[in-house]
């Protein structure tokens, strides 16, 4: 237990970011907490609310403490909340670890029959003792359905529509298991009926249908990456399982026959990247995905794709590191790693997504950039994006145009694979087209034959590095500035902090926010332009040393002195940002 | 039918005089002529070591990858376009030290790939250290007291891991080596040819004379489909007792044959524009 304590350091009362409502469910690992949490997220979304959910769990299969929270609102919500309005405790740990998050007037639903002790729960919290396990056993025939009973009771207490729960159960088990569907329906109903009968007076209708339910997806970053890759024409993915990006392979694997691609589970990450390079060399749009530890094993392949000019998309989902680190927690400690993870120099394109919509958009872009510039493209994400679900409009897949750059379609005369060109990009042939060439990890001449002559080396280096300049001119995008153009405080960040920052910004009119998505090539001029005229800059990152601040300093010469850095495995909460902004004494 | 000159490149061959690689190179080109391999039907992958230079000396489209990683590279090529004939050149350090894990998994994957192992039982390119196939007691720059480790038997390892074709030849006999390469390549499945290759500079044990003296061709009475017999045969190694020829040959479904998505057409010829509208419904 001690290992998984996640007490808030700061228990002082702070204003909740309004107007949001946070539901949280906790229990032992193996209880299906994530599945129940996701069901709640979908119910809230189907009822007309925007949702963002966030899960915390240890790196074990059974017995540890799992929680999932869903924050929902009638307005767009992009981040998790530090405070909880309604807590479902399936075990004692949930009460002990999370009672401090309960705000005045919050609800605590727990199983009274399980001997859960609610002493020490703040006085203003409404207690709802519901015999969750007993209802599941008696009505459903098995305690496995305890989550369904708990969700049914939750619907009753929050004034939600039970029909959404029923629909989701039907969708999950489907026509194949009608008896399971029926039993779950009855169990959900029993939970609902129990609270309506026993707690009628205490029902707070915070989840009624808004009547304006939009068609939104409730989707994680991993799932968005998989969908984005499929929409972008990905044909080959070799991914060795690793938290937090395994969700990508879980989403891809069942779809390979339907869409005509191959997902291959390789023997290790070295094989993963080399297989993807081989597949790409032969003509497939190829990708791999991993976390920092797996990327450590891929680094030689990263350079191989660089020197052989083989297109490749790599998704790197950061988690607490180094080494095994915090396998199931979030961090942004790999920014400099992906920038420098190889011997020597080659052009690499690195993009960092800030939320699930950007994941979908940028992975499609990554496939095109990889083909156009014939070089590896890294999409940097973090556990908080990979595994949190967000409600977003359906992705605009139909607008996507596959761009394969200078890919040849057949045999050409006097072909030279590594021909020196003004923009650094050479025509790319595929094996089997009749054009002879060598993809060579050794330095090489224009055909690809090994060559160590000084002029050849320099010409090939110049050619390869030129591609990055071409990319910076032709494709690189400036970072987005959110909020007012002129502001007293300018926040700078990257990755998943975007959501918490945008939610925090709702409370201020004099703060703006620069979100950086292009890491390499780096939009130096655009970043400098914004930061030069900023009055007070705060850099926010989930790492120890402020890697983005260092990159900004390297590129622009500007030093950011005020940093909010977090490296405890938890994402930055919007409340922390509000506190930070409020603590700044403005000079004027 | 192509001729030897069709495979000639402008690059001068830079192996040491009398290097066993010449025999393998000649055998390979003879096999290519015989089988009609060209830049429309064949692709080569190689690792790093003296063997890897071969990509510069044969005019066939190729990929010289990282040390030890030729097999996953070839695996990706084959999955991406299984209509291509894929051959892999590798060395004993490349395949069995740096790439040992890939070798085991490639064997059990049974892709239709031909592997030519240039086995000189020493590290040549890095000027003479012990290799995974160097004999026990072997003295080298890295084992001046004598190699304390047992050598790996690559054919036995491949057999245990699921390879479906295993052969051995002596690089000094280009005719036999060409025959083994052709037979391995015609086999549907993961095929390994161990080419015993003297390193005339650094290996003073496994010399041309040693092999000429000690190899013998597996006889007609040897049953190539019997796995137990093959295991036993791979264990033979000694004076006048180094078998060459085909050790094992069985037909099992290849990896590619088991993937329904490439039953009709190879991956690279499939549609890139996909409609994910129905797929998104799952997330509502």
In brief, what are we looking at here?
The complex is a heterodimer of chains A (about 600) and B (about 280). Chain A is built from 19 helices and 21 strands. Chain A has about 600 residues and is an alpha/beta fold.
Describe this structure in words.
- Chain A is 37% helix and 19% strand.
- Chain A is of the alpha/beta class.
- Chain A folds into 4 domains: 2-214, Pyruvate-ferredoxin Oxidoreductase, domain 3 (3-Layer(aba) Sandwich), CATH 3.40.920.10; 218-399, Rossmann fold (3-Layer(aba) Sandwich); 407-475, no CATH class; 480-583, Rossmann fold, CATH 3.40.50.
- In chain A, the strands form 4 sheets. Chain A has a 7-stranded mixed β-sheet with strand order 9-8-10-11-13-12-19, with helices on both faces. In chain A, strands 2-3-1-4-5-6 form a 6-stranded mixed β-sheet, sandwiched between helices. In chain A, strands 16-18-17-20-21 form a 5-stranded mixed β-sheet, with helices on both faces.
- In chain A, strand 20 (537-541), helix 18 and strand 21 (562-565) form a beta-alpha-beta unit.
- Mean pLDDT of chain A is 94; it is low at 1-14.
- Chain B is an alpha/beta fold and 284 residues long.
- Chain B has a single domain (4-256), classed as 3-Layer(aba) Sandwich (Rossmann fold), CATH 3.40.50.970.
- Chain B starts with 19 loop residues before the first helix and ends with a helix.
- The relative contact order of chain B is 0.14.
- The mean pLDDT of chain B is 97.
- At the A-B interface, helix 1, strand 7, helix 7, helix 9 and helix 10 of A face strand 2, helix 2, helix 4 and helix 9 of B.
- Strand 15 (438-440) of chain A pairs parallel with strand 2 of chain B.
């Amino acid at each position: 237990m001690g290992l998984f304590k996640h007490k808030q350091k700061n228990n002082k009362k702070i204003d909740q970011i309004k107007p949001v409502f946070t539901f949280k469910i906790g229990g032992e690992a193996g209880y299906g907490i994530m599945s129940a949490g996701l069901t709640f997220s979908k119910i809230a979304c189907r009822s007309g609310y925007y949702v963002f959910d966030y899960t915390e769990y240890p790196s074990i299969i059974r017995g540890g403490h799992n929680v999932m929270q869903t924050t929902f609102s009638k307005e767009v919500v992009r981040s998790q909340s530090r405070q909880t309005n309604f807590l479902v405790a399936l075990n004692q740990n949930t009460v002990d670890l999370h009672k401090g998050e309960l705000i005045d007037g919050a609800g605590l639903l727990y199983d009274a029959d399980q001997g859960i002790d609610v002493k020490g729960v703040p006085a203003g919290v409404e207690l709802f003792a519901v015999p969750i396990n007993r209802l599941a056993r008696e009505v459903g025939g098995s305690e496995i359905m305890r989550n369904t009973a708990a969700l049914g009771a939750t619907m009753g207490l929050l004034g939600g529509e039970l029909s959404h729960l029923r629909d989701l159960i039907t969708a999950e088990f489907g026509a194949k298991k009608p008896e399971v569907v029926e039993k779950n329906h009855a169990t959900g109903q029993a939970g609902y009926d129990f609270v309506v009968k026993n707690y009628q007076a205490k029902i707070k209708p915070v989840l009624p249908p808004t009547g304006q339910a939009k068609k939104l997806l409730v989707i994680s970053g991993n799932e968005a990456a998989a969908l984005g890759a499929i929409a972008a024409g990905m044909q080959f993915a070799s991914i060795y399982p690793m938290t937090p990006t395994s969700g990508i392979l879980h989403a891809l694997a069942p779809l390979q026959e339907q869409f005509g691609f191959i997902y291959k589970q390789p023997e290790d990450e070295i094989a993963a990247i080399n297989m993807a390079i081989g597949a790409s060399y032969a003509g497939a749009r190829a990708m791999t995905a991993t976390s920092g530890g797996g990327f450590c094993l891929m680094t030689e392949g990263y350079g191989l794709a660089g020197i052989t000019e083989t297109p490749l998309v790599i998704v790197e989902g950061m988690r607490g590191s180094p080494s095994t680190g915090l396998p199931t927690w979030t961090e942004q400690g790999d920014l400099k790693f992906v920038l420098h993870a190889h011997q020597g120099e080659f052009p690499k394109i690195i993009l960092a997504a800030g939320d699930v919509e950007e994941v979908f958009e940028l992975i499609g872009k990554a496939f095109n950039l990889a083909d156009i510039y014939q070089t590896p493209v890294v999409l940097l994400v973090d556990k908080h994006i990979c595994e949190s679900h967000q409600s977003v409009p359906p992705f605009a897949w139909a607008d996507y145009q596959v761009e394969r750059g200078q890919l040849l379609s057949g045999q050409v005369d006097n072909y030279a694979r590594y021909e020196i060109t003004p923009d650094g990009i050479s025509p790319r042939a595929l094996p089997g087209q009749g054009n002879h060439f060598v993809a060579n990890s050794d330095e090489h001449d224009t055909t690809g034959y090994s060559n160590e002559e000084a002029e050849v080396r320099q010409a090939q280096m110049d050619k390869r590095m030129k591609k990055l300049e071409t990319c910076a001119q032709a494709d690189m995008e400036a970072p987005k500035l959110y909020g007012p153009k002129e502001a007293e405080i300018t926040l700078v960040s990257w990755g998943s902090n975007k959501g918490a920052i945008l939610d925090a910004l709702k409370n201020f009119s004099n703060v703006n926010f620069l979100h950086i998505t292009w890491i390499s090539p780096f939009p130096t001029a655009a970043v400098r332009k914004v930061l030069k005229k900023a009055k007070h800059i705060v850099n926010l990152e989930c790492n120890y040393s402020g890697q983005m601040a260092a990159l900004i300093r390297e590129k622009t010469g500007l030093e950011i002195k005020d940093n909010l850095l977090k490296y405890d495995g938890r994402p930055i909460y919007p409340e922390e940002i509000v506190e930070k902004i409020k603590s700044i004494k403005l000079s004027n | 039918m192509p001729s030897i000159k069709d495979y000639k490149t402008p690059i001068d061959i830079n192996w040491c005089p009398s290097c066993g690689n010449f025999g393998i190179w000649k055998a390979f080109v003879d096999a290519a002529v015989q089988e009609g391999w060209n830049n429309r039907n064949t692709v080569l992958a190689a690792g790093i070591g003296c063997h890897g230079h071969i990509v510069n000396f044969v005019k066939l489209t190729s990929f010289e990858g990282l040390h030890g990683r030729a097999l996953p590279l070839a695996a990706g090529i084959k999955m991406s376009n299984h209509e291509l004939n894929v051959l892999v050149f590798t060395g004993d350090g490349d395949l069995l030290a740096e790439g040992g894990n890939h070798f085991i998994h490639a064997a059990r994957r049974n892709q239709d790939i031909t592997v030519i192992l240039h086995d000189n039982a020493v590290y040549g390119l890095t000027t003479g250290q012990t290799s995974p196939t160097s004999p026990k007691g072997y003295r080298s720059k890295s084992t001046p007291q004598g190699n304390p480790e047992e050598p790996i038997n690559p054919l036995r390892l491949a057999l245990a891991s699921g390879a479906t074709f295993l052969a051995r030849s002596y690089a000094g006999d280009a005719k036999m080596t060409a025959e083994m390469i052709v037979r391995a390549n015609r086999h549907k499945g993961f095929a390994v040819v161990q080419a015993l290759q003297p390193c005339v500079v650094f290996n003073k044990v496994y010399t041309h004379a040693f092999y000429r003296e000690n190899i013998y061709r597996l006889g007609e009475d040897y049953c190539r489909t019997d796995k137990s017999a093959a295991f036993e045969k791979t264990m033979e190694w000694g004076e006048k007792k180094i078998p060459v020829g085909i050790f094992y040959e069985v037909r099992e479904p290849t990896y590619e044959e088991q993937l329904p998505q490439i039953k009709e057409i190879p991956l690279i010829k499939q549609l890139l524009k996909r409609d994910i509208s129905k797929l998104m419904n799952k997330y509502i």
